[in-house]
Amino acid sequence: MTLPNEQTESTPIVIPRRLDPEDAHMALQKLQDILKRQEVVESLTHRQYEDDDRSNLLESLVHRQHEAEIKAIINDLHPADIAFILESLPVDERQAVWSLVSAEHDADVLLEIDDWARESLIQSMDHHDLIAATGTMDADEIADLAPDLPPEVIAEVQKGLTDAERAQLLEAMGYPEDTVGAIMDFEMVRVREDVTLEVVLRYLRRLGELPDHTDQIFVVDRTDKLQGTLKLTTLLVSEPEQLVSDVMVTDYLTLNPLDSDAEAAGAFERYDLVSAPVTDDQGRLIGRVTIAEVVDVIQEDSQEQALSRAGLQEEDIFAPVLDALRNRAPWLLINLATAATASLVASRFEDTVSHIVILAFLMSIVAGIGGNSGNQTMTMIIRALAVGRVSAKNTIQLVKRELTVTFLVGACGSLVAAGFAWAISGSLPIALVMMGAMIANMLIGAALGVLIPILRDRFGKDPAVGSSVLLTFATDSLGFFVFLGLATLFLI
Fold first, then answer.
1. Which CATH architecture has domain 190-308?
2. What is the CATH number of domain 21-177?
3. What is the CA radius of gyration of the chain?
4. What's the distance, CA 378 to chain centroid?
5. What is the pLDDT of residues 274-329, one digit of tens each?
6. CB within 8 A of 172, min separation 6: which ones?
7. Which CATH class is domain 321-491?
């Protein structure tokens, strides 16, 4: 006889699997080893066997063995980890591994993977697989994938939706990218204010499962106008006989579907939100935004800003060379033009440099320090613009502050630079010119670090796009001009 809680020898001990990003890195290394091994075996097989039949048979056996190993590895991972692995493989290998991913993961992986890699996965899927994957998604999830899906697939998927889901899909697809409407979720719980908490609890039990990230229930009237919110914590600790209207919160944040998703993310950060209702112009509840979507927005914005500062757009690192060329060439050509301008400025002071050769070595320091100073300022300003802390009224104040900070930092740093210039040249006048040029160029970099992103934002342009290229152009050209100009005036 065995007690209920007693373990027998034949009863396996189940160890729950924990999520760990390191698992995905280890799995990626194993997959890369298998793919490399498969490539080597295929190459050796073709060399060793001249008989095509024997070669094909051996190659087929090895290929099936490797496929089994890959399936065992990849299908034991979380969809987000599978997406990470697929993003880390060249296009051909990505599509080969993707074909071995279990169909039950298809929908989740397509939603998790970055846009630039998703396109290659969809291209490798046939019509029926795409319909099967998207057919299990909610309307808002289908809307996220719609730009990458063939029109015939979207039309086929719509046939399987209810009228309400079809209306939600068309509504979500109608909102511009980077707006709240494009990321909002239609799954939420609504209740009326004139029912008791006991009625609400019975209703929730009948649902069986709550939508993800449900921290509050939305209280609406008969026309779906939002009246308030009922927090789950309040529902659990309050007396069941109380009415919803007695405990609901009427001081809450609402979003409009046309609001910027970045502004929504800022609101979530400021108020520590898990979810927020989305209402139309008439106050009717049409959706909600959850912390899951907000985290994605924050991550995407961060990646876009990092790329934009170098004048780049997001690209598949394994994409064909021509695709990468189209992405990178424009701003590199602009950078080439700016570098040529800086060289032209330096060439105007050929006589000065020929008389004092040491200036050619020192002027790169002046240009580099000015660029670094400006980049520090510009990074702070772009971040402040992103969270809405910069306006027309405080622009002048920001410029004055940055100039003051930069002057104080430059004064200290220029003493070190002047000491270095004096040590290698043995000339006090050269050291003083170095000191003055360095402070001047740092001030130029700081001023432009404030003005470039603010002016681009004022004219409706992304303040981060190419900003570092423009700043480098100014600090290099003006840095050379100031340094060599002062040298011409005081040393020649």
1. Roll (3.10)
2. 1.25.60.10
3. 31
4. 20
5. 999 999 999 999 999 999 999 988 888 777 766 665 566 665 666 666 766 676 66
6. 139, 140, 143, 181, 182, 184, 186
7. mainly alpha
